[in-house]
C-alpha cells in the first residue's frame, strides 16, 4: 500500500466520520427527544408538577404593586392624595429606592417630632445638670460623661435599626448589597412599639 493510497483512505474515513457525526443527535437533541417521548400521553406516566411562581408575601398588609404610585405604600391622605411635586417617586424608580425614601421620611419625621417637643419642653423646664437657656445652647452645657453616654445611646439605636432593616454588605466586586433594604422589611417598622400603638390588621395599618 502506497502512501498515496493511505492518504486517500484517511480522507474517506474522515469524510465518513463527519457524515456520521452530522446525523448524531447532540445532547440537547437527545434531551428534547426524551422529553417529547415523556410528554406523550400515557395513563401510567404521571405528569411532573410545575412549581408555582413565587408569591410576594405581604408586609404589614402591604404588597408592592409597580402599577401604583409609590408601589402602593400607604400614606396618601386627603385632601391632596398622592402628592409628589418634586418627583421623588417618578416612574421607573426601583422598589428599593422607594422603600429607602420612605425609611428616611419616617425616621427623620420621628426625630423632628421629638426635637420639636424637646425645644419647647427644654426651654420651659430646667433640665438635669442645671441646663437652661435657649434650646440651641443646651447641648454644649451637657457634661462630658453624660454627652458620651448620649452619643453611645444614639449610635446603638442607629446600629440596631441598620441590622433590622438593611442587608449586610458583602463588599465583594460588583456587590449590590450596599445601601439595600431587606425584602421583608417595612420602612420604619423596627419592631419597637412599647405602647402597643401599631395596628393589628392590614386595614388599620394602612389608614392610621
Tell me the layout of helices and strands.
Blueprint (H helix, E strand, L loop, with lengths): L2 H20 L4 H12 L56 H30 L19 H22 L36 H6 L1
Question: Describe it for me?
Answer:
This protein starts with a helix and ends with a helix. It has helices spanning 3-22, 27-38, 95-124, 144-165, 202-207. The chain has a domain at 69-203. Helices cover 43% and strands 0% of the residues. Residues 16-41 have low confidence and may be disordered. The chain has five helices and no strands. By secondary structure, the protein is an all-alpha fold. It is globular, with a radius of gyration of 33 Å.
| Helix coverage percent | 40-55%
Poorly predicted regions? 16-41
Number of helices: 5
Strand content: under 5%
Shape: globular
Class based on secondary structure composition and strand pairing: mainly alpha
Biggest sheet features: none
Short description:
Chlorophyll b 1 binds at residues 110, 178. The protein has a domain at 69-203.
